[in-house]
Amino acid sequence: MDTQSAGGDMTGKGRVVMLVDNKVDGDSRVQKAAESAAAAGWDVTLLGLVRTGKGREWRLGDAEVRLLPLKAPLAKRHAERHRSLLRRPLAYPPGPIAAYRRQWAKAWRADVATRRAALKVAPAAVGTPLFRRVEGVRLKVAGPVSNIVQRWVGLRSRHSTAAQQAGRRLRGPLDRLFTASWTAVKGRRAWRRLEPALWDYELTYGPEIDALRPDVIHANDFRMLGVGARATVRARAAGRSVKLVWDAHEFLPGVRPWEDNAHWIPGNTAHESEYAPYADAVVTVSEGLADLLMERHGLTQRPTVVLNAPDRPGEGGGGAGDAGDADGEPEPVPDLRELCGVGPDVPLIVYSGSPGPQRGLGDLVETLPRLDGVHIAFVVPNPSAAYIQSLLARAEELGAGDRLHAVPYVPHWQVVRFLSAADAGCIPIHHWPNHEIALITKFFEYSHARLPLVVSDVKTMSEVTRSTGQGEVFTAQDIDGLARAIKQVLADPEPYRAVYDKPGLLDAWTWEAQAEVLDELYSTLVTDRKKSEPRP
Questions:
Q1: pTM
Q2: Per residue, what are the HEC states of 41-93?
Q3: What is the C-alpha to C-alpha distance for residues 394 and 407, in angstroms, rounded to an integer?
Q4: Cα 347 vs. chain centroid, distance in angstroms?
Q5: Which residue positions in the chain have pLDDT lower than 50?
Q6: SS3 category, 241
């Protein structure tokens, strides 16, 4: 490790270590934050993770990106480690014993059947007449006994499978009692029992942060908040002044988790509540979320709002090796219509972003029979994912399989130009607390692509869309209403596109404007830190 890596940036504004609990690729907000901060003169290292395989490193503009291999033994639930006598008393302990017993019982039954057959077809090979008589008696007993044992082993194995499934789901009365008990006893420290896997992140990231000796730690979202807070405490205990920025992307109590169980929300919200007071500054994505964070955590200063806005078209960068060819020329932007196999005159609606049932992609698929000749493109992280494949299969069932397309993400600096090939951008998200309070990334990306919008009636987004006139609003989960709104914007798109000519509208919705806010925040924190340090 060189001198600079070992102890803070001596030439620039200061060292910033950014933390995110994903593989960085596909997280446009984090990529833009790292790249723009580095361009503004900060020494930036962005730490992400890989859940399988080895870590890797690359550069994103002038920022360094490191992916750390996450080891997660603490992610195993109690039922995956211990026998649950209360949940399924007949179950085998976790591990290979159930499979071993099943195979052993099958082998015994096979052996009994073979020995019976041998007595019939090859008695001489079995042994002497006396041995054969004894063997016959043995087999009369072994036959029914082995059958009973096999049935018993099968029953216990089924109980084991059920216990494992229930233990992973964590939705039963015992799970709710466990959560309530530890929450009552430990309060906001209960996450140590409810979500011990949060320690896996600490043990993965902590040593790397300590070695980098940052001036500012920028922790993205709730898992990294605790990691950043503990690193800040360690640094200050060692005599170094470090500032912690918590970037809250969502309102955690309003999240619809993939892992829907009795522990997830209580455990993670307790973790967030314990470490929120350690943040020297809070950043978030909307004024509405800022209000909720102030109320929930009793913040003394209002969070700084940094919108999920895209790069100004034509000005985005990119990491070395990602942004151009061998001659340094910009990488050509893929043609969305070419990827979908449609011509310039074919009506094309685009949805770009993370997929999920609550995001309304299924509703869009259901509109296809109502939208004669209209094609829909899903721009998603992984077009081969099971959920996307199920949507493609549903389109086939509806007789519209040739009009639904799934294509992969492009680098964040290409997104706006990539999407501009569509005729309209759709955001059919359902009512969910986090959907109500912010203008999400795709809203700004569609706007810079100058696309007419079709959005559901979630609060903030529908209000802005109606006030600007850049699109149509429909009632969430209303398939007929969604189809009508799409037909309306396709019938006469120009009035919606003309909204983007309003002076200043798109300028405020650029990452360049947000990067200035973030740079000013870092500078203020580092200046305050230097003022508070004792003079030598």
A1: 0.78
A2: CCEEEEEEEECCCCCEEEEECCEEEEEEECCCHHHCCHHHHCCCCCCCCCCCC
A3: 17
A4: 31
A5: 1-7, 9-10, 316-328, 535-536
A6: coil
